[in-house]
Amino acid sequence: MKFKSLLLKFLIWRVKHVSTTNFVIFTSGIIGIIAGLAAVSLKESVHVIQNFLTRDFQQEFGNYLYLSYPLIGIILTLLLSKYILKEKLGHGITDILYTISKKSSIVKRTKTFSRMLTSSLTVGFGGSVGLEAPIVVTGSAIGSNIGRLVHLNYKQRTLLIGCGSAGAISAIFNSPIAGVIFSIEVILAEVTINTFIPLLIASVCGALVSLTLLGDDVLFSFNLTDDFVAADTPFYIFLGIFTGLVALYFTRVVSKVEGLIHNVKGDLNRAILGGVALGFLVFILPPLYGEGYDTITKLLEGNAQNILNNSLFFDEIESFFLIVLFAAGIILVKPVATALTIGAGGSGGIFAPSLFLGGVTGFLFAYLVNKLGITAPISLSNFTLVGMSGVMSGVLHAPLTAIFLIAEITSGYTLFVPLMIVSAISYSTISYFEKYSMYTKPLVEKGDLIYHDKDRQVLSLIDLKKVIETDLLTIDPDATLGELVDLVRFSKRNIFPVVNQDKELMGIVTLDDIREIMFDEESRKNIIVNTLMHTPPTNVTGKENMRSVMMKFEKTGAWNLPVLEDGKYVGFVSKSRIFNAYRKKLIRQQIE
After folding, report:
1. What are phi and psi of 233, to 5 degrees?
2. Which stretches of 410-510 are DSSP H helices?
């Protein structure tokens, strides 16, 4: 109670002395700091777990514990999420986008820490996913809940969600520009100068926290050793196409494998099946363990022969064909490993897998070009880095984020031109086949997320169940016209649903249908309602989105349509009622 009293006094003082714009800027800095602390905590906790589990592994031998670690991690994650946190995991950024679109940007308080706990177990024990999506969810939850605490409205809460995600990405990679761009490209739909400033403040604060606590020990970094050679441009163009196709492969395989594992009944059964399969893949290909940044570092440093340390089959690979074979194997299997981790109940995201896959793709491309000897040798490290940008651009549909992220983690803009070429071509390539990213596609298909269409955005905010009209008087199909006329005297509507004893809609009768005979005594006695009724042009269900409902209105030309739920009559929905709700939503958005 004392806290609430102090908070109330502060908020009253704030309203009197601090403008909302300045208060949001100040709040964004606080959110950036807290998100930065969360990112540092998550990164360190995962590395502590991984080092503890693998510190005694000998590089020259296969390590059979790889078979069990992912299974243990997924089961622990499942138990924690289901029985203690009581949260359903999955693609966290998709959940945040749904929250912004459908839940007024109100993120559950438990998400300020839940994804940190679950992802540290999943990734620490070798789950083949990344930490970026969980920390974005954490930062977004921090922004949303602080916004609620200080009584900010929907648009301001949404902005603070963006600030939380910007601060988190900035801290985990020490890349403040990429943090801002990610928030703009992936999280927020509309950005103005007034919203841009808080994003900058939050991102800078997140980066400062990371620099203060970790110095240069960020999630992934590399200092460039080779310059960009303009003569390599044709190869970068081909790499852009290649990474776009790899991004498409990753997107399709992850969706397919997740769908297959979700068909397995029972959470524990899915966890066991996915964990066992993932453990087997990691045992065969150790680079699939965890995020995979160590493997990328080896490739960048020219130590490709060491990518299968801890493997059962090889200590060091020196054969050209074996290196190509295993690099290709990693590219083919990584999406399966990622999908198994998430689909089985693990916690993590596709951000790091896309970077990992891009790095291996870029390396393999340059390695093949050099071995073929068709030109002067090209830089393995440069193509590895630019490949990361290409696949990430395609998978996330975020080319600007990919460009600035790689530019920042390499501490310079030497590769800016090839990054732009490859990211743009990769994005264009995958966009030809997949219009939306993995984050947005399921939401767009359900009508829960709409871009660049203000009318549809406002309509999507209307809950169909709240505009259903239940005041229409129903009539039995075996009733007489006289009984129907008696209803007309009391009804304020001119539509009468014909409903049987099982609550099933048999048809409808309108006032126009009976106007000419309703005063005829003989007709009122002898005519039965089921001979007067007609079938409505179509019906809707309470679970339909507003886009589907409006399309039915447009196709039929009707102004009123019946609503059925499991075949039972519920009520009617009218176009005029929807338009009235639309007008109120639009006015409210303009006020906010």
Report:
1. -55, -45
2. 416-433, 441-445, 454-460, 481-490
